[in-house]
Write a structure and sequence with these properties.
The complex is a heterodimer of chains A (268) and B (68).
Chain A lengths: L21 H14 L7 E5 L7 H4 L3 E4 L5 H11 L4 E7 H7 L1 H10 L3 E7 L34 H8 L3 E6 L3 H13 L4 E6 L3 H7 L5 H11 E3 L3 H5 L4 E8 L5 H16 L1
Chain B lengths: L1 H8 L2 E3 L9 H5 L5 E3 L5 E3 L10 H5 L5 E3 L1
Antiparallel strand pairs in B: 1-4, 2-3
Classes of the chains: A alpha/beta (268), B alpha+beta (68).
């Protein structure tokens, strides 16, 4: 695959730190779009604010860089106006679960055909390493030098509870799996959320003795297991990977279109 | 025989201007076909050992590696 076809080379090298996992997720996303045979003119990538939200700047699709936490609201507008387009929303854990937490749950509830990609590095990287809602309890950040007291959000369970019809999870170590899950999520008719654990060696790794990017990726391999595998069954403490929710449900644009057709019929 | 022809046709191209030297490609290469040079940039130093699996391209966070 020719990756460069899908990126804006003039903005490279990108601004992400050495070893940051976000570039791996971007590469997987480009691979997923390529594998689905989508034209660049059919794809819209919309982000909010944060390290991961710099992604649309690097991608040669229709792109929007919007307000912190509000990317899903903008994406809702785009999708309602042009249901024929494929809309992808890369988000960070803070963007998705804190600032935009309400947009996330309601987008999931409506089941609008959007693909939310949450690049979860468990910390606010861009602003200096503060705790996020996904920083594991007891882990350190610049705002929690003695460890975070708050229990963390499980984004998969959050999305499931809010009614998302497709939810999956992977890590940057599992780059091929991430690409396949992203392709499945984009192809899914309805709201899909893919959580990808991504390493932040600069803040999360340094604050938690996680080591460098390579060590953090090895940790992703150790602490996760494919859902339904023997390893996952033997150790419930492991984080499960793969497609975790996949339930066909009425898609919002389809229901809206149906309503418009029905009411137009009454007027005639 | 197909892998033989792939091996002859495909090269690992590294853009040193984009590479930030994180070492991910070097650490996870199953054949130790990559290494970091004196400037801390990734180099394809073992083309004869390389099996062209493409893991380096997939895991490169800088999009600096292409198998072509």
């Amino acid at each position: 695959m020719n990756t460069r076809r899908y990126i804006r080379e003039r903005f490279f090298p990108h601004l992400w730190c050495p070893g940051c996992g976000h570039g791996i997720v971007m590469s997987a996303l480009v691979g997923a779009v390529d594998s689905l045979g989508l034209s660049q003119n059919e794809v819209v990538v919309i982000s909010g604010i944060g390290c991961s939200s710099r992604m649309p700047g690097y991608l040669d699709f229709h792109t929007m860089h919007t307000l912190h936490g509000r990317a899903l609201a903008f994406a809702t507008g785009v999708k309602m106006g042009r249901p024929d387009l494929t809309v992808i929303v890369p988000m960070g854990d803070g963007d998705a679960a804190a600032i935009g937490g309400n947009h996330l749950i309601h987008a999931a509830r409506r089941n609008l055909d959007l693909t939310a990609v949450v690049l979860n590095n468990r910390i606010y990287g861009m602003t200096g390493g503060q705790s996020s809602p996904t920083t594991p309890e007891g882990d350190r950040s610049t705002t929690a030098p003695y460890g975070v007291l708050d229990p963390s959000f499980d984004l998969v369970e959050l999305a499931r509870g809010a009614g998302a019809s497709f939810v999956a999870r992977s890590t940057t170590y599992h780059a091929q799996e991430t690409r396949e899950l992203l392709a499945a999520a984009i192809a899914h008719q309805g709201f899909s959320l893919v959580e990808v654990l991504s390493q932040c060696p600069t803040y999360y790794g340094r604050k938690n003795q996680g080591g460098d990017a390579v060590a953090m990726m090895k940790t992703f391999k150790q602490i996760t297991a494919p859902a339904g595998s023997q390893r996952a069954a033997q150790d419930p403490g492991l984080i499960t990977r793969g497609i975790l929710v996949q339930e066909p449900r009425t898609e919002y644009c389809a229901a809206y279109g149906e309503l418009v057709r029905e009411l137009s019929g009454h007027e005639e | 025989m197909e892998s033989r022809s792939l091996k002859e046709e495909l090269s690992v191209l590294i853009d040193v201007d984009w590479c930030k030297g994180c070492g991910i490609c070097v650490a996870f290469c199953p054949k130790q076909a990559l290494s970091l040079d004196e400037h801390g940039k990734a180099r394809w130093t073992g083309p004869e050992d390389c099996v062209r699996c493409g893991l380096c391209q997939m895991r490169c966070p800088d999009l600096a590696i292409e198998l072509r």
